[in-house]
Design goal:
Number of domains of chain A: 1
Number of helices of chain A: 9
Largest interface: A-B, 49 and 49 residues
Strand content of chain A: under 5%
Number of helices of chain B: 19
Low-confidence stretches of chain A: 201-205, 214-220
Strand content of chain B: under 5%
Radius of gyration of chain A: 18 Å
Mean pLDDT of chain A: 81
Distance between the termini of chain B: 34 Å
Mean pLDDT of chain B: 88
Shape of chain B: globular
Radius of gyration of chain B: 21 Å
Order of helices and strands of chain B: HHHHHHHHHHHHHHHHHHH
Largest sheet of chain B: none
Structural class of chain A: mainly alpha
Shape of chain A: globular
Number of strands of chain B: 0
Oligomer: heterodimer
Low-confidence stretches of chain B: none
Largest sheet of chain A: none
Structural class of chain B: mainly alpha
Distance between the termini of chain A: 68 Å
Order of helices and strands of chain A: HHHHHHHHH
């Protein structure tokens, strides 16, 4: 039984890294959004499994937040926003897909080396979770760096945050996990409202943030 | 929850925020804002006399009581400044009355979040508080709704979010390190409990955790490769917010970092966090000093000066030891008082001149003598000239470093002198020579600015022995 528990948790956390990789090469915004919804779904499953394994019912709330808020509400809202802005087809990468993927692989290797080396004493399940979580965090960062589009930067941030929730639920019995995931959801809601409310499109005619850079930090 | 001074510094701002969000009319709003910050300050002052026992969530000890009083004090004076500043912004049409209600409510939420971060005994609560503080300042930075303000807010948002995300990862790792010692549950996140057994934590895990925390909270402190949001956010937001950002929020983030540094200091096997902090501090000092030379925007210039001073402070804490820690604590206090005073002056100057461009200002000491000389005094203080308070703390940092690592001290002195040169170069243009730009009378309230400067001046000449003893005690705690 212990073996199976470990294997399923391992598989779900691994799938999260895999979906992170799949996000890296999506070249259209709507496809990227679908990928993110999948990411959140896998996270919800993984958290729910942790809740079951650790017999920690409060984690089901975190799983529910991930499922309802991140896998359904946010993608639907963002879909509407990008259709309204007329940018659901475009996306451009700063670096080529191949290079980005290679960088992603490098980051995962880095995460494994760092986390597995410093946690020899920890519970093997938590240890693997932590290593996968760091990979997801680093890939999220990579995505934020390589994408120039405000919406895909936000998606990068949200997948980074999924990695953090994975780490927090993997750390056995960590208090305040639910509170932290709520705090994060508020943050994300703010960002999404921000995109809409600040009406970047209206102000800048594009959500491409390189066009936003017109103002280079200094008044002429 | 029992009502005492600690809960009061949290409950007063949050209640005021709810009230302010509903109250129409900016005059009442501004007055209520001042009143609420004054009450919070009084509650904070009472902590000196009557300190409740630390609970699992809240804690007041020798280290944070100084910061709570400092934060509430600067919060109070800034609200006085804000009242006169905001009236002018309304007249010039840069802000709409409906935004002001929002602004005042957010100001109180920010005070709440900073106080919560300071009194938090739980590293998770501390993280949540710093996140709330980030969010509110993002909203306030973007309040003018101009291109530049929105871009600054967006940049701050993204970089700040990444910073706090990394800090959370670090926090989780600290919990993981504490897990084998304390077992599952709340204890493994309570700081006062953690510090008792930190020596038994897994050192490798603690090291990695500290690197994440340094990068995460370091972004909020504005340390050099992670500072990109700071000048924009300072320049584009309303000036009271620049004063609070520089004077308080950077301190709060640094305070969070210090708490974790103390955990590492207890563990004999963990890396000394000093070398990392020394390196980042020095890079910040030298980088910011060079950047100071090419500034054309007055608020942006003082934002870079904040990066420089945060660098000095982080350097001092990185060096460690009673003397350097003492200097670091003193410098934090002095910098926050001086820098907010400077921003008070700058806010009024920008309103008089109708611009933030340094090239469009000149001869301020002739046209607006009080404002002009106030700024001169502020810059003299921030540049670290004797006999003002910052000279004292910088002198202590430099001499204690010379005794231990002369090479590092030389780099530090180089950075400080460079900043001094840059600041005086610009000061000359702004305050002396032919008057340039529009000449208008300022009907500002100068009390907050001169109150701060008087305190800084006093600290340079005479420090009350009780305060010195207090700082020395805390410096020992920091290891």
């Amino acid at each position: 039984m212990q073996g199976l528990v470990f294997d399923i948790a391992h598989m779900l956390a691994g799938s999260l890294v895999l979906v992170s990789f799949m996000q890296l090469y999506q070249d259209r915004l709507s496809a990227l959004l679908n990928m993110f919804a999948l990411h959140a779904l896998v996270l919800a499953l993984s958290v729910a499994w942790q809740a079951y394994v650790q017999a920690a019912p409060h984690l089901y709330i975190t799983a529910l937040i991930a499922l309802v808020f991140k896998a359904i509400v946010i993608p639907v809202v963002l879909h509407r926003i990008i259709v309204r802005l007329g940018i659901h087809r475009e996306i451009e990468n700063v670096v080529g897909v191949g290079l980005t993927m290679l960088a992603g692989i490098g980051l995962v290797a880095l995460a494994m080396v760092v986390m597995l080396r410093v946690t020899p004493g920890a519970d093997p399940l938590a240890r693997e979770d932590l290593a996968f979580a760091l990979s997801v965090v680093l890939i999220g960062l990579l995505m934020m760096v390589t994408r120039r589009n405000a919406v895909s930067q936000v998606i990068g941030f949200m997948s980074l945050e999924n990695g953090l929730v994975l780490a927090a639920t993997g750390a056995k019995g960590m208090p305040l996990v639910v509170e932290i995931s709520v705090a994060f959801s508020i943050l994300i809601a703010f960002i999404v409202i921000g995109i809409f409310l600040f009406r970047i499109r209206e102000r800048f005619d594009t959500v491409d943030i390189s066009a936003l850079d017109r103002f280079r930090g200094e008044r002429r | 929850m029992i009502f005492n001074a600690v809960t009061a510094v949290l409950i007063i701002p949050i209640t005021a925020a709810a009230l302010l969000a509903m109250l129409p009319g900016y005059r009442i709003g501004a007055r209520l804002n001042v009143l609420a910050t004054l009450l919070t300050l009084l509650a904070a002052l009472s902590l000196f006399y009557d300190r409740p026992q630390p609970g699992p969530y809240l804690l007041v000890d020798d280290l944070n009581v100084v910061f709570i009083v400092l934060t509430t004090f600067v919060g109070f004076t800034t609200s006085v400044f804000s009242a006169s500043y905001i009236g002018h912004e309304l007249e010039s049409g840069r802000l709409k009355p409906s935004f002001l209600r929002f602004y005042h409510a957010m100001y109180q939420v920010l005070m709440f979040a900073m106080n919560l971060a300071l009194v938090a005994n739980n590293i998770g609560v501390m993280w949540v508080a710093i996140e709330i503080a980030t969010l509110t300042t993002v909203l306030m930075v973007g309040i003018y709704r101009t291109h530049e303000a929105l871009e600054a807010a967006w940049k701050y948002f993204i970089l700040g979010s990444v910073g706090i995300a990394l800090a959370l990862f670090g926090t989780i790792l600290v919990y993981m390190a504490a897990l084998p010692v304390f077992g599952e549950g709340l204890d493994a996140m309570v700081w006062t409990v953690l510090i008792t057994r930190a020596a038994a934590f897994d050192p490798a895990l603690l090291n990695v955790a500290f690197v994440f925390l340094l990068l995460g909270y370091g972004t909020k402190v504005g340390l050099a490769p992670l500072h990109a949001w700071l000048p924009d956010a300072h320049a584009e937001g309303p000036t009271p917010i620049s004063a609070v950002l520089s004077g308080l929020l950077l301190n709060v983030a640094l305070y969070a970092l210090l708490r974790f540094k103390m955990l590492l200091a207890v563990n004999p096997v963990a890396i000394a966090p000093g070398s990392l902090m020394v390196t980042m501090g020095l890079i910040s000092v030298v980088f910011a000093s060079f950047m100071l030379f090419r500034r054309r925007d007055i608020k942006r210039m003082f934002a870079y000066s904040s990066i420089e001073h945060m660098g000095i402070i982080v350097f001092a804490f990185g060096m460690g030891g009673p003397l350097a820690n003492f200097a670091g604590l003193l410098h934090m206090t002095m910098h926050s008082l001086t820098k907010s005073a400077i921003f008070f002056a700058v806010g009024h100057i920008a309103q008089v001149k109708g611009t933030q461009r340094i090239a469009d200002m000149g001869g301020l000491t002739e046209t607006n003598p009080v404002l002009g000389w106030g700024l001169v005094l502020g810059v003299v203080a921030i540049a670290g000239l004797p006999p003002l308070g910052i000279f004292m703390s910088e002198f202590l940092v430099v001499t204690s470093t010379f005794a231990r690592e002369p090479l590092l001290a030389i780099i530090l002195v180089f950075g400080i002198l460079l900043a001094l040169a840059a600041l005086f170069l610009r000061l000359n243009t702004i305050c002396f020579g032919e008057p340039r730009g529009p000449v208008a009378k300022s009907d500002a309230s100068y009390v907050p600015m001169f109150a701060h400067l008087a305190l800084v001046f006093m600290a340079g000449i005479y420090m009350p022995p009780a305060l010195v003893a207090w700082f020395q005690n805390v410096a020992k705690l920091l290891g």
